[in-house]
């Protein structure tokens, strides 16, 4: 594989709220891309509390700590032998697990992690990155280097929506290309008294993609360690996840940049004025 022929796409999943489904969706995006024949690396950069190894039932020999140690000792040393393989029914991709011990997370240098991504993007078609829910030094660096940032939200409580708006507004102030930030709504039909159109009004733009709530399928996927797109059940959520991947891999697609119209009568919108 010639390094000079690859400049992999980095897709980072980010949110301003916890428990919105970043890990589940990033795992399924990596799995679907690998199923379609792309070379894929999935990175768990929720350094303290990452769950990818648990979701996929992995027992890694090496973690991001080892990759950082390796590249600091010798930047020319190949990193792929330190990655963890995930394979299911012929679909294979590599994983960078988060540190095995909590204290290791505090000693990792964000610049070194970015150097690892720059190295690996020469060897993979896609690198999928799962993150923590904060504007940390590492996350800001990850947002900068990413090709696409999937800003994931859910509609459940008003504080969550407030944080989603603050996060979305902050991302827009970073002067990224208009197509870099993709606003994706997860669990859109969860039982709540908050209307989707009110949230769109508050954010000032439509969601790029919407994923419906399927607690049973998602729970089964986590329990079995098999991603939804690989378990053969083809649920509605599975189809929506595949549609999201299809939109990301279709280079001719241009998302609408037209902002949603504000509706004066919304009680929820008035809270954010």
CATH level 1 class label: Alpha Beta
Q: Looking at this structure, what is the CATH superfamily?
A: P-loop containing nucleotide triphosphate hydrolases
Give me the strand/helix succession: EHEHHEEHHEHEHEHEHHH
State the helical fraction. 25-40%
**Fold-level CATH name:** Rossmann fold
Rg is 19 Å
* Biggest beta sheet attributes: 8 strands, mixed
Please work out how many helical segments DSSP would assign. 11
Low-confidence stretches: 251-265, 267-273
Which structural class best describes the helix and strand composition? alpha/beta
Strand content: 5-15%
Shape: globular
User: What is the overall pLDDT average?
Assistant: 86
